[in-house]
Amino acid sequence: MFWADEFLKNRRGKEWINDAWTPSGITHMGGLKGPVIHDVLFRVLKEQQKDVTYTFGFDDFDPIDGLPASIEVSHKQYMGVPTFMAPSPDGNGTFADFYGAKMRDMFAVLGINAKIYLASENYKNGIYNTGIKMMLDNVTKVRKVYEDMYKNSLKDDWFPLQVICPTCGKLGTTKVTDWDGQEVTFTCLPDLVKWAQGCGTTGKISPFDGNAKMPWKPEWSVKWYTFKVTIEWSGKDHMSKGSSFEVAANILQAVFDQKPPAARAYEFFLWNGKKMSSSKGLGLTGAELLEVLPPEVARFLMIKTDPNRAVEFNPKGTDIIPKLYDEYQKAAEAYFEKGDADLARAFELSQILEIKNVPPVRFSVLAQWVQMPNMQEKIAEEGLEQWATYARVYIEKYASDSEKFLIQKELPEAAKALTNEQKKLLQKIATELDKKWDAEEFQTQIYELGKEMGLTGKQTFGAIYTVLIGKDHGPKAAWLILSLEKQFIKDRFKNI
Ligand SMILES: [Zn+2]
Q1: 190 CA distance to ligand 1 centroid (A)?
Q2: What span, in angstroms and rounded, lies between the C-alpha atoms of 423 and 493?
Q3: pLDDT tens column, 156-206
Q4: Burial (CB count within 10 angstroms: exposed 0-12, middle 13-18, buried 19+), residue 484
Q5: Contact at 8 Å (CB) between 212 and 163?
Q6: Within 10 Å of residue 235's Cβ, how many Cβ atoms?
């Protein structure tokens, strides 16, 4: 059974799926896996006619704790400031909006139907007020969760809250030390964190209506409590023993007497065996992925294997991308021809608005066609424009040299090594060019001519590739020849 159907069988009652992300940087492709997985779960529950909601939080109340090199200087003063209060790297709107807009665009392309909410709005609108109050009233229970899990004791002045400093606007630098039932006592410390400096302000302030924020683990449990979240998966780093999920679940139990949502850990995309990371420059960004894969193929990549398996995805100079397209075509066949059920299901749940059939041509062939002059017409005729766009990106950015070919302006050096039979064959082909050829028939004719001269197929076609592109292999020879200017071919084939 397909993993999503397996996970969701025999569930009862109202469902609330949630996921979240901090809009503070460019998302690498692995960052799309959670949203896509949750979207698939959402669709399956919809199919089951369940009362289901899918929300996705932009955690824009999180303080900026690191910056991309390009804005390290311009934005240094905003380190520690919540992302919804800092200016955008491009000067328009807020820091959170800048990255949030890119994520919204990718959601739209991928057909992810989550309701997006902003953490800052929920805090400001008082949606988390009850959760915050219960968290502060029960602070001893929260401390005990941390103490039990991390085996170190927390002092009486430890509270799971930080306020926005009314003087300097920073959140990452403040420490709450007391709670009197109405207000919290706080200090903005110069040396609380290494990445930002506080201003020294001390005072009392209400913790409600957007003045303060919980650290993300207690905050996670408050989201579960507030929305009654029933399903939330997470990357495996957040779900292993002693990790954030467990802390949040234990706080939820201790303070709110509730059970955590149903969850599974999902594995990462790997880049040469390592976890992808945009800050380390390992892997593709989400935008780069969507430049080389149609959204339905990108979804397919995220869901075709059980999410608990890591997937290596370094497409540079490898055949990972053409293979993925092949697999997608196989999945389409499974769907339309009632083949392998899991593969068919993965295809079905990869679709965006409606089930779309796949092109009849393999991606690797198309990647050759887009390199041939005058193949545009054929690409249009066969309705391959969409995949051709991706094939061009593939050739330009990822294909190995052996897949790229360029028609050589001068006769390549390698032509000297051709045998007399091969040279004669080329001259013979040149005399055939004035006839009106269908590519398929011409391909057969070339093969027959070679055979008559005692050449193998490899020697026959190798001769053509050698004089045109300087390699011993290439795209289908007849198509290649017919796509080029006739006089150019005649000159090249006769004068060797
Ligand atoms: Zn301050």
Answers
A1: 8
A2: 8
A3: 999 999 999 999 999 999 999 999 999 999 999 999 999 999 999 999 999
A4: middle
A5: yes
A6: 19
For residues 55 and 389, give the distance between their C-alpha atoms in angstroms, rounded to a whole number.
33
Q: For residue 406, is pLDDT > 90?
A: no
Residue 428 one-letter amino acid: K
And the tokens for 441? 């028939």
168 CA from centroid of ligand 1 (Å): 4
The pTM of this model reads 0.88
The string of pLDDT tens digits covering residues 327-364 is: 999 999 999 999 999 999 999 999 999 999 999 999 99
> Ligand 1 centre and the CA of 82: distance in Å?
13
Tokens 């339309």 belong to residue: 336
| Integer Cα distance of 192 and 174 in angstroms | 8
pLDDT score of 209 more than 80: yes
CA distance 254 to 138: 9
Q: What is the secondary structure of 83-129 as a DSSP string?
A: TTTSBPTTSSSBHHHHHHHHHHHHHHHHT--PEEEEHHHHHHTTTTH
DSSP secondary structure letter of residue 471: S
Instruction: Name the 3-class secondary structure at 437.
Output: coil
Q: How far is the CA of 202 from the centre of ligand 1 (A)?
A: 8
Distance 122 CA to ligand 1 centre (A): 23
Could you tell me where the beta strands, DSSP code E, fall in 305-354? 311-312
Domains along the sequence of the chain with CATH? 3-130+215-268 (3.40.50.620), 162-206 (no CATH), 270-402 (1.10.10), 406-494 (1.10.10.350)
Cα distances from 312 to residues 227, 332, 359, in angstroms, run 35, 23, 26
Q: What angle do CA 100, 77, 190 make, to 5 degrees?
A: 120
Burial class of residue 135 (count of CB atoms within 10 Å of its CB; 0-12, 13-18, 19+) = buried
| 383 three-class SS | coil
Distance from residue 189's CA to the centre of ligand 1 (Å): 7
Q: Across 247-378, where does the E strand assignment appear?
A: 265-266, 269-271, 274-275, 311-312
Q: Which residues have a Cβ under 8 Å from the Cβ of 324 and sit 6 or more positions away? A: 293, 297, 300, 301
The pLDDT score that the predictor gives to residue 476 is 86
What is the C-alpha separation between 269 and 312, in angstroms, rounded? Answer: 6
For ligand 1, the distance from its centroid to the CA atom of residue 80, given in whole angstroms, is 10
- Ligand 1 mean position to 74 CA, how many Å? 20
| C-alpha–C-alpha distance, residues 175 and 165, integer Å | 10
If we measure between CA atoms, which residue out of 433, 423, 431 comes closest to residue 466?
423
> How many angstroms is it from 171 CA to the middle of ligand 1?
8
Q: What angle do CA 301, 67, 202 make, to 5 degrees?
A: 125
R_g of the chain computed on alpha carbons:
30
Instruction: Give the single-character DSSP code of 382.
Output: T
